[in-house]
Amino acid sequence: MMKNKTQKKAITNYSREIVPKAMSRVRADVMTWKQSLAIAESVESPKMYPYYNLLKDMMLDAHTYSQLQNRKRKTLSSNFLIKNKNGEVNDELTSTLQKSKVFNDIIGSILEAEFYGHSLIELSYDDSDKLITTLIPRQNVIPQKGQLVYDYNQDKSVDYRNANEYGIWLLEFMGSEPLGLLNKAIPHILFSRFAQSCWSELCEIYGIPPRVMHTNTQDPMALKRAEKMMMDMGAAAWFIIDDTEKFEFATTGMPASGDVYDGLIKLCRDNISLLISGAIIGQDTKFGSKGKEQSSQDVLQDLVDADQTMVEQYMNGKVLPALAMIGFMDADLSFEFEQADDLDELWQRTRDILPFKNIDNQWLIDKFGIQVTGERAASTGNNLSAFNQNLSADFFD
Q1: Which of 22, 55, 88, 207 is the most exposed place for a label (fewest CB within 10 A)?
Q2: Is the predicted pLDDT of residue 391 greater than 60, yes or no?
Q3: To which H or E segment does residue 32 belong?
Q4: Eight-state DSSP code of residue 20
Q5: Cβ-contact 44, 73 below 8 angstroms
Q6: How far apart, in whole angstroms, are the C-alpha atoms of residue 268 and residue 264?
Q7: Closest C-alpha among 96, 130, 106, 105 to residue 9
Q8: Which of 16-30, 106-120, 198-212, 268-282 has maximum average pLDDT?
Q9: Closest alpha carbon to 191 in 281, 287, 269, 79
């Protein structure tokens, strides 16, 4: 199963050298996004921290986060197999690694590379001689240049791809796009936030309308008495205007129901769902149907299959060789996901062949959980026909 470490520990622990930074929480807009893109895509001196700080803030959006986690967990919850060079499954090692947090973290980092554009992880042994993984903050990594900065506000960097630890203790995973798929979701998140903010202001105004008092604002005693009256009446917004002035809410000719904001929020969320899940799943309750939901699930499964293929490539090409070099596991092992059977289709095929061939009882128990014993009895129709033939003519007399 596992081997004792034969490779000495890494010379440098890069993750411990990272300088922690407080992230700004000012309100972001489209201009903030475009500026961060310009800095990240700079040819001469790219900086990634403005973009990834913005993306970290965007992931506070509940809908985007849930869609991302739904897709990730379909792969993280799938069973995988560890095979030796002969193609035989190592059951003991497979069972151990499926329960291992290390493998869960590594697979998660590989999947996130597709969404964020890049993942750089560091393997190390802790004080209790237990293998752990650490994700290097993406704000501190400049993959275009192969540079790692301990303080992203400074220019001093390390060429991590030429370090002795690269490929052994440092493992790098790249997505299909430099800035990841989530870059396309940022404008939709920003507009969804804007619509929710405007809608909340509408609810505040029309839910608890502000109170207005007319008085002689030139009279200090009358103005003071009016202020006291408004303050004693409750916590709703209020204001005092002169008795010669008039106050009205501006109207657009449309009822103040919030439909325009609801439509914008739905449009943004639909686009986010299409980007991450490939379809709108479990959200359209007005026009939804079982057929549409099943089709959406099939589209999502196609994306999950592609994610699993990517994970297998990285695991067999980078991760397992590195784990063998540091002595965590044997060499010449391979990783693959266990292919799940379509039980509905398999059951239909089993029923179709049942009248012509015998089916192994244990296979039925293992595959479908049906407890079967003994031989298959004759059909009811044949038994009834034989029974009728044995009846005498005067049986019903």
Answers
A1: 22
A2: no
A3: helix 30-40
A4: P
A5: no
A6: 6
A7: 130
A8: 106-120
A9: 269
Q: What angle do the packed helices 101-116 and 290-314 form, to 10 degrees?
A: 110
Neighbours of 136 (CB within 10 A): 20
Query: Residue 333 contacts by C-beta under 8 Å, 6 or more apart in sequence?
Result: 82, 83, 84, 85, 90, 93, 320, 324
How far apart CA 321 and CA 169 sit, in angstroms, is: 11
Distance CA 273, CA 265 (A): 12
- 58-96 burial, b at 16+ Cβ within 10 Å, e below that, comes to bbebebbeebbebbbebbeebebbbbeeeeeebeebbee
Q: Work out whether strand 118-125 and strand 170-174 pair parallel, antiparallel, or are unpaired.
A: antiparallel
pLDDT tens digits along 70-109: 999 999 999 999 999 888 989 999 999 998 899 999 999 9
Tell me the HSE value of 17 on the side-chain side, using a 13 A CA sphere: 15
Rounded Cα distance, 107 and 308, in Å: 9
CA distances (Å), origin 247, targets 62, 208, 239, 250? 39, 16, 10, 10
Distance between CA atoms of residues 361 and 369, nearest Å: 10
Non-local (6+) Cβ contacts of 395 within 8 A are none
Task: Please report where in the chains the tokens 């993942």 appear, as a residue.
Answer: 119
Alpha carbon distance 60, 173 (integer Å): 24
Q: Classify residue 112 as exposed, middle or buried by CB count within 10 Å of its CB (0-12, 13-18, 19+).
A: buried
The rounded distance, in Å, linking the Cα atoms of 328 and 2 is 6
In single-letter form, the type of residue at position 173 comes to F
**Beta carbons within 8 Å of 39's beta carbon, 6+ residues apart:** 46, 47, 50, 51
**Residue type at 264 in one-letter notation:** L
CA distance 50 to 59: 15
